[in-house]
Amino acid sequence: MKAILLVPLLCLLGLSQGQTLEFTSAYTVEGNVTDSGFGYEVIISGNYVIIYDESFANDSGAIYVYQLNDGAALYSMKGSAENAEFGFRLAVSGNYLVIAQLSPSGDGNGTVFVYWLNNGTLVYDLFSAPSSYFGYSITASSTDNILVVGAPGDVALPSAGDVFVYFLNNGTFKYLVSGSGPGVELGSFVGVSGNYLVATGDINEAFVYNLTNGSPLYNITTGLSNLFLYGNYLILPDQNSFGGIGSIGVYDLTDGSLLYSHNGTTALQAYGHEVRTLGNYMVVKTQADFAVDDATFVYTLDTGSFLYQIPGFTPHVAVNGNYLFLSNAFDTVNGYDLSNGSLLGNVTGPNGSYFDSGLASSQNYLLVSDLSYLNYTGAVYAYDFSLNPITITSTTGDSNASSASELGWFF
Questions:
Q1: What's the CA gap between 276 and 303, in Å, rounded?
Q2: Number of helical (H) and strand (E) elements in the chain, helices listed first
Q3: Burial of 156 by CB count in 10 Å (0-12 exposed, 13-18 middle, 19+ buried)?
Q4: pLDDT per residue as tens digits for the range 160-169
Q5: Half-sphere exposure of 99 (CA within 13 A, CB side)
Q6: Where would I find the beta strands (DSSP E) of 349-385?
Q7: What is the pTM of this model?
Q8: pLDDT digits (tens, 9 = 90+) for 254-278
Q9: Residue 218's CB: how many other CB atoms inside 10 A?
């Protein structure tokens, strides 16, 4: 199990319009194996923190679960073999924790495990045809009692791909939708919101189905590098479009009509690398080849109206309540007013750390990952900013549909 360390106050201060965002160090959770990937991905759901260690035991993978309020270790789970990539994909909905193990021994024979989130008990597991990369994408909705698993097929061979839909509570098979032909690789990304299922492949198309029975509704032809769902908004980024400038298209999920689109501003900017949504805000981040071209853009979600831009190298982004958090230059995380982009404060990590390896925020907590901590053992630092209470904006749609910012993911 992980050690819980109380660490000194590292941080603060920034001032905007008479308001100061103050961070208090709450706790640190550490990895226990050098040269691992502890903190590579983090999800916050309710009072639970789920941490993925991608490189544990020669890439077998491991998952660790803690209490958010005090960092107490609850349980951990590990992959079954080297290169199994246990934890490659994660989804949380209600009291269900869904974990994909992508490829034991590199064979593409994926397995999806469903656990009770509160105690780590295995509920059931699922697997499909060999070399299908079953579990390459997953999403879950306890509200709809649905688990969706993508299996795009062997990346080295032309594959149509499949998307499997199950009842979440017991793993009973519900229906299957398949790609139309070789090379489609349907199931590369999946998401659900309301009564809609969205799946994409490798042919620059997004396919939308009736979630209840899998009947096709429409498809959208566009460049794709991911998909994000938020209520009735379908957001399709293509960070490689326009010669790497990047773009996003925002669509009405009910009928597939294009509401608006935005492009990046410079070559090789990879606009659309990350998208976060909260309330009526949409945050779009770049991943430019040159740090000088990196930036974060904020818009209104309903109309796409530009609000402001924050320039600078920002590897990761998190949104929570009235706050926008951006990592900056490896050792600092800045907190901004989400409504206008004004700087409110910052927190700085230890010298020489990769303090910006990832971000997550929920309730009154900010979590910052440092993959380089203690000879790359890895650590996640937790800060409490409850001295300046936030107002949590209500959200629509299932919190596990592909847009996971409501849960406090970071990558």
A1: 16
A2: 3, 35
A3: exposed
A4: 999 999 999 9
A5: 33
A6: 358-362, 365-370, 379-384
A7: 0.86
A8: 999 999 999 988 887 888 888 999 9
A9: 13
